[in-house]
Design a protein that fits this description.
pyruvate-formate lyase- activating enzyme; three-stranded antiparallel beta sheet
């Protein structure tokens, strides 16, 4: 296994979308084409499955050096209300475009730090969304919270607004690691917000952990996972730290790369964590995720209804996902569009009465076929050759898969590609064999994190 890790630990996409963002068309997507794709998708799916909303709340009081998200560091809470006003203006532009009232199946508040916002402003945001929308059957509302900046009042307010699932960014409990990544929070504080969530009535609580952080050791990971399991979150995301300082700049340049665990050390931390989760009754979901058997994520996996989008793994699929807020990415299934990344450019476009997209991609028929294969592999660890590929493309993919087959990571049948248990950690590499955009346009410079 050690040799396979060295062999397959190469730069590669995380496949929250296909095509991945670096391979979107350079000319982008016109506003007219984006709007047309949104209306098409909405008309096809609103009544049968509803839509999803991702709302990006970008403010943080301090910079976490591991973070690769688009954020704005400030302690001025006067920024809250103007930002929410702008987000609701953007939502109204979409509602005017759709004409018919949307049925929202899923809302997720990401960031940044969503719990940077006061209870009153969070209420203003969600109530503003539902002035022009209805809740779909099996409505789910989730959000990310910083344990140090989440109060009982916020937890109760969000619960009263319909949220039953939240997620807390833990990363690591070791003081040395916390200092290195500038994310200092005690186990006692995490326990407090976790216990308050249970008391209020949240039915699904998730904790995010990261392996591969600077100065992280086997001892620190064991301690972190022991404490995490003691709180029994329903879901655990166990992410590989993506060291991409050439993209994310200042924050990730805040420590020496020599402080990062080496390839085999990093993978050992993952395998150790995985076994500790298994021992505690958790089940592996897709890539990097674990859940208790009682959680909807596990049930979705068992029923082969697990879905993956820019919000990660979700138990409910919607064809249309609208991203609101600076830097948010929307997905109409037929096209992607990303909002302006800076607060100023985002606000300016919205105030001009236009959707604030600055780049995107209109998927071709070939893109849509490959997208289905990659989505199947990421969610179900298998894909069917019944999904329409030309014989030429299928042969090319098989040629690229041959070495992976020889290494015992997948099984191939007449109608399926099946990822073996030994191959789960290499699923990104397996997807890369299907990735026509990556193969046709090999990057000249490094643009992805390592696959393992």
């Amino acid at each position: 296994m050690k040799n396979l890790i060295q062999k397959y630990n190469i730069p590669g996409p995380r496949y929250t979308s296909y095509p991945t963002v670096p391979f979107w068309d350079k000319e982008g997507i016109s506003l007219a084409n984006w709007e047309k794709s949104v209306v098409k998708s909405f008309n096809e799916s609103n009544d049968t499955e509803g839509i999803s909303l991702y709302i990006h709340l970008p403010f943080c009081e301090s910079l976490c050096t591991f973070c690769a998200c688009h954020k704005r560091i400030t302690k001025r809470h006067s920024v809250e209300e103007p930002y929410i006003t702008t987000v609701l203006k953007e939502w109204n532009i979409y509602c005017d475009l759709l004409i018919k009232r949307p049925k929202i199946r899923e809302i997720h508040l990401g960031g940044g730090t969503p719990t940077f916002f006061s209870s009153a402003n969070l209420k203003l945001l969600i109530n503003g969304i539902f002035k022009r929308a209805d809740k779909f059957t099996d409505f789910e509302f989730s959000y990310e919270g910083h344990p140090n900046h989440t109060t009982e009042e916020q937890l109760q307010t969000l619960y009263d607004l319909g949220s039953r699932r939240n997620s807390f960014g833990i990363q690591d409990y070791d003081p040395v690691v916390q200092k290195a990544i500038h994310r200092v929070q005690s186990f006692e504080q995490v326990k407090k917000v976790n216990d308050l969530s249970r008391k209020i009535g949240y039915t699904s609580i998730s904790h995010d952990l990261i392996f591969g952080l600077p100065l992280q050791t086997e001892k620190s990971i064991r301690n972190t996972i022991k404490k995490t399991i003691a709180l029994k979150p329903d879901r655990i995301a166990y992410y590989s730290y993506a060291h991409v300082p050439w993209i994310k700049g200042v924050g990730q340049r805040g420590f020496d790369k020599n402080d990062l665990p080496k390839e085999n050390e990093k993978r050992f931390l993952y395998e150790l964590g995985k076994q500790l989760f298994f021992d505690a009754g958790y089940i592996e979901i897709g890539m990097d995720h674990f859940s208790l058997p009682s959680d909807p994520l596990y049930k979705a996996m068992k029923n082969k209804k697990l879905h993956r989008n820019f919000m990660g793994y979700t138990a409910g699929k919607t064809q249309l996902m609208i991203g609101l807020g600076m830097s948010s990415i929307s997905d109409s299934w037929y096209a992607f569009a990303q909002n302006e990344k800076t607060l100023e450019a985002y606000t300016k476009k919205v105030n001009q009465g236009t959707l604030p997209i600055f780049k995107g991609h209109l998927l071709t028929n070939k893109d849509l076929i490959i997208r289905k294969h990659i989505l199947n592999l990421m969610c179900n660890m298998e894909t069917s050759w019944d999904i329409d590929l030309t014989e030429k493309v299928k042969k090319e993919i098989l040629n690229r898969l041959q070495e992976i087959i020889d290494d015992g990571l997948i099984d191939l049948t007449n109608d399926k590609v099946l990822v073996k248990e030994e191959g789960r950690m290499f699923v990104r590499n397996i997807c890369m064999a299907f990735d026509l955009k990556l193969i046709e346009n090999k990057p000249d410079t490094r643009i992805f994190s390592m696959t393992i």
